[in-house]
Amino acid sequence: MTVYLHDVNRGLGVFLLVVSFLLPGCSSSGGRRASVPVMVDATAQVVEQARQTWLQEHPNWGFHGRAAISQGRDGGSVRVEWEQHGRGYRIVLSAPMSRQSWVLSGSSSGPARLEGVGGWVRVGEVAEQVLFEATGWQVPMGLLPDWVRGRNSGGGDVQLDAEGRPHRVYQRGWQLRFLDWFPSSVGRPVLPRQIEASRGSARIRLIVDQWDELIP
Known about the structure:
The chain is mostly beta strands. The chain is about 15% helix and about 50% strand. The protein contains three helices and 14 strands. The strands form two sheets. It has an eleven-stranded antiparallel β-sheet, with helices on one face. Strands 1-2-3 form a three-stranded antiparallel β-sheet. It starts with a strand and ends with a strand. Belongs to the LolB family. It is found in: Cell outer membrane. Pfam families: LolB.
C-alpha cells in the first residue's frame, strides 16, 4: 500500500489523502481496481486520531450483537457476547435455531479453548483453527478485536471515508467493509455498528447492538 498525503491548502487545513490499493474484482483472477482519492479535512483527521488514541487507551471492552456466517452454501446466524480484557477474551456464541452454543476463551498470546453444549472441549494454539474444526466457519479471530472497533493496527491496506475512519480494509486475504457506525456519546467516540468481511466463499456480517466498556 502506498499512501500519499499532500498539503492542499494549509490555511483551510484541507488534505488530499490518496490510498492506493487494489479492490477485489469480479473476475476469477481476483484483479483489483485502483481506488479514487478521498478528501479528508484537517478537523476529521484530528477527530479520528483522537478516536484511535481512545481505543488504545481502553483495552477492556465488550459488545452484544448478531452475526451471520456462511461458507459457500452452508451458514448460520448466532448471537454474540464478546468480552475483551487486554489480550484476553471470552466470546459466547449461541444459535437459537439449532440450540447450540459455544464459549471461546483465551488470549492473543496463548492457546484458545472452545467449550460446547454437552461439556466437550477443544484446545489449540490458534483460535481461528479451533473454531473452524468445531463449526466449519472461517472467522479471522486474530484480526477481529481490532476490526470490530475500527482500530488501525497496521499490516493491512486501508481505504478511509470522508471522516477519516476506515471504510475498507484488506488484510491477510480478507476484505472488510464498515457499513454503519454508532454516533459518539459522552466519554466515547464513534464505534462500528455493522461490518462485513469476506474471503473467498467465506462471508461474515456482524451487527453490534450494544457496546460495553468493561471495568479493569
